[in-house]
Amino acid sequence: MCGIAGWYRRSARPVDPAIVEAQCRTIIRRGPDDQGVLVDGDLGFGMRRLAVVDVAGGHQPMTSADGRFSVVFNGEIYNQDELRRELGAAGVRFRTRSDTEALLEGFAHWGPTVWTRLEGMFAAAVWDHRERTLHLARDPLGIKPLYWTLQDGGLAFASELKALVPVPGLTFVPDPEAIDQYVALGAVLAPGSIYRGISKLEPGTALELRAVGEPRLTRYWRLQPTLRSDLDENGWIEECRTRLLATVKSHLIADVPLGAFLSGGLDSAAVVAAMNRLGASPVHAFTIGFADPRYDETAAAARVAAHLGCRHEIHRLEPLAAAEILPRLATAFDEPFADDSAMPTWYVSRFARQQVTVALSGDGGDELFAGYRRHRAERLLQRLRRVPGSGALLAALARLPSLPALPGRRRRDRLARLAADSALDSTFARFFAKQCTLLDDERRALYQPGFAATLPGEGTLARWSRRHFPAPVSRDPVENLLYADTAVWLPDNMLTKVDRASMDVSLEVRVPLLAHRFVEWTATVPIARKLHRGVGKHLLRRAVAPWLPPGAVDLPKRGFSVPLAAWAGGDLGALVQTAWREGDVDRAGVFAPGVVDHLLAEHRAGARDHGRLLYVLLMFALWWRQRPTG
After folding, report:
1. Cα distances (angstroms) measured from residue 53 to each of 57, 570, 582
2. Predicted confidence band of residue 405 (pLDDT cuts 50, 70, 90)
3. Which of 224, 453, 480, 611 has CA atoms 20 to 30 A from the CA of 621?
4. What pLDDT band is residue 182 in, cutting at 50, 70 and 90?
């Protein structure tokens, strides 16, 4: 695991190694163990390494045995033994045990088709010395990040935005549409970034850039749901266990201490239970808790840990500690990012890093097995639509005066949301609507008129739906929703959160449920095996129930969030005002003057719950204060 960065200048002037070294220094937390830089005329790239596999032999950049290719690589290749056997049979002789060499010699042997053979998480850059061609690639699910920008004829790339700043001549101009998307969704979706002209390489995509010409982007992997009907309930359960054990086993390879996150929910419990059955006992498990019992799952986690014989450690997160860490989180993300679960993720990562170098996580279970309320709501909506006049009935119920009036999209209860959803023309529009903190008119009310005038007049839900989902992938709306979760929300929200929060403390987090072969398998499972009688993750629950204490798979879902409403009324709310003032955000030309003071006053008076929105504005202010201004 590491961070990578580089610059293909594409000019007669060579790259100064000091520039690449400066790029690497900005991401030293991603790789505190080693640094390497390679310069070949107008191409220079480098890395910071967190040594996990073949600690002594995995130094990068690494050059192929024939001298033609060099690589910098961030991630882990879990099928490297299989690749080595195949390459060895073709005459390749290896010099190290590192997965970096397996990737590199695979590229030398198969060319860019190697990306389709890799099983793992990765962002990689391969330099062809002979053809003077740069190849970039990102793993199928987007577990590892990679930014790139083509400016002044050259291409710069990096694991994080901050590592682009040392490259001379680059500009960092905030993009109004990206800012609006952030306020709506709490994140900027790939291929965009918060800056004009700087892109995220999308998951499952490779980029090729020659000495002349434009970059060529190739999508080498895309999830294609293909449902099967060849198994009964017991057959699916056995296959799920087999697949789960196989994917977890592949993620246990390490030459350093390894542990796991244990949240108290089903997904992390399933991963830890699989580790236990594979002989990784006692599993060293780490849990974050809260004083507020509505958010605290430590009791459930402790029960699972005791049943599995884990070495279990619990750490509690307090509001003041969270407020103190937010400026550092803003630096780690480089873009405004408003998933509040980044706070406990950072703390559990720091907590775990004191004991281990690698931790397994249960991320992805809800997106693969229909574990969210929105999946149940989508199925309910489809059933209600079969009833004549149901849309009008839902709308009438939503207008009853007895229903509560809460801010933003939560101002109506579930009946009202169903009515609003039924008015949208696609599952994908509903997907984005459910992720929005504020819809279009509500956001525009926060903006200065001049900023609002720069935004497209067309509705964002329709525009985003067309951009990310030009066509349905299934006739089943819930399958389309799962696809949206996996293709967009996982890489641009959840996996972004996990990568930045964990790498900021030099911890490698692995997500076995998101190994792309396992994801491909889940896309063959009929939706009725996932969402069964109104209960999500049915198949996963049945598969792991015998491994866990009684009742552990039936606990209600709480998520990994923090009590924002309460915290925003105290120290967190004060931090919003301080960050807004110190960052001089009113002069950014985005938000109406006094917007934070107004929202905070309403929140503290109990008139409206603005906790989520205040957190969005806080993270914007912290980003604005430290953004590059070139």
Report:
1. 9, 45, 44
2. very low
3. 453
4. very high
